[in-house]
C-alpha cells in the first residue's frame, strides 16, 4: 500500500468513531500493535526530542525501504507513534521525505491533542523524515 492509501484507510477507520473518547481508545489500541524497538536502542540517541513523554524511534533499512520500531512510556504517545509507524514504515526514504501527512488534520488530531502532545506528534513526524533523509543520502 502507498502512504496515501494507508492514510485514507486510517481516515476511514477514525470516521467510525463518534466521539473522541472512542478515538483515544483506538489510538491506545494501536499503541499495543507498534513494532517494539529492541531494548538495545532504548538510549538517549533514539529519544525523540520535543516529546513530553519518552519516545524511542529506531530506523532500519531493509531491501531499500525504511522500517521503524518504537516505544513510549505513555500509552497515548505510544499510540501516536504507532500511527506514524503504520503510515511511514516500509516505504522508501524518498517516499517518507516527500509524504504529505494530511491524515493528521483529517482525523482531527491537532485539535484534540493537548499542545504538548501536538508538539510531540510534530516532533515524531520531523524525526522520521530526518531519519529518512539521512538514510536516503547514505544509500
Walk me through the structure.
This protein has 139 residues and is mostly helical. The chain has one domain: Sufe protein. Chain: A (Alpha-Beta Complex). The protein has helices at 3-15, 20-31, 75-88, 93-98, 103-106, 109-112, 115-138; strands at 55-62, 65-72. Strands 1-2 form a two-stranded antiparallel sheet. A hairpin with a 2-residue loop joins strand 1 and strand 2. Helix 2 (20-31) crosses helix 3 and helix 3 (75-88) runs parallel beside helix 7.
Termini distance? 23 Å
Beta strand count: 2
Within the largest sheet, what's the order of strands? 1-2
* Large-scale geometry: globular
CATH hierarchy: architecture = Alpha-Beta Complex
The CATH topology turns out to be: Sufe protein. Chain: A
H-E string: HHEEHHHHH
The CATH class designation is Alpha Beta
Strand count, sense and barrel status of the largest sheet are: 2 strands, antiparallel
Q: What share of the residues lie within helices?
A: 55-70%
Oligomer: single chain
Low-confidence stretches: none
**DSSP helix count?**
7
Percentage of residues in strands: 5-15%
Question: Class by helix and strand content?
Answer: mainly alpha
- Tell me the Rg in angstroms: 14 Å
Count of domain modules: 1
Please tell me the overall pLDDT: 93
Amino acid at each position: 500500500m502507498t502512504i496515501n492509501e494507508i492514510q485514507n484507510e486510517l481516515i476511514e477507520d477514525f470516521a467510525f468513531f463518534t466521539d473522541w473518547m472512542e478515538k483515544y481508545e483506538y489510538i491506545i489500541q494501536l499503541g499495543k500493535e507498534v513494532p517494539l524497538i529492541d531494548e538495545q536502542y532504548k538510549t538517549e540517541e533514539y529519544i525523540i526530542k520535543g516529546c513530553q513523554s519518552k519516545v524511542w524511534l529506531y530506523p532500519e533499512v531493509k531491501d531499500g525501504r525504511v522500517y521503524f520500531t518504537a516505544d513510549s512510556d505513555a500509552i497515548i504517545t505510544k499510540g501516536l507513534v504507532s500511527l506514524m509507524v503504520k503510515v511511514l514504515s516500509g516505504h522508501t526514504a524518498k517516499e517518507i521525505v516527500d509524504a504529505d501527512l494530511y491524515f493528521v488534520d483529517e482525523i482531527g488530531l491537532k485539535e484534540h491533542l493537548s499542545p504538548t502532545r501536538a508538539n510531540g506528534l510534530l516532533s515524531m513526524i520531523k524525526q522520521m523524515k530526518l531519519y529518512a533523509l539521512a538514510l536516503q543520502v547514505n544509500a
